[in-house]
Amino acid sequence: MKWVVLLARHETSRVKMESIARALRDDGTFTPEIWYIKPRERSLIGLWLDYRAYLTRLRMFNPVAVFIPGDRELSPVPPFIKAARKLGIPVINAALGSPYLEGIVLPRIGDKRFTPNSLVARLFPAQIRDGIMFSPTSVILKHAILGMLSPNPWIQGGGFSDYVLHSDPVRCAAAVAIGLGQEKILMTGDPSLDELHRELSVNPKKDIAVLFSMPNDAEHGLCHMAEHLDRMQSYLAVMPKHTVISLHPKSRRENYEPLGFDISNDPLTKLLPRAKLYVCSTTSTVAWAKLCAVPVINLDYWNIADDDFRDCVNVKAPQELKIALQSTIEPVSVAPPTFDGKSGQRIVDFLKGLGTKPSPLPEPERSHRKK
Question: ω into residue 76 within 30 of 0, thus cis?
Answer without folding.
Answer: yes
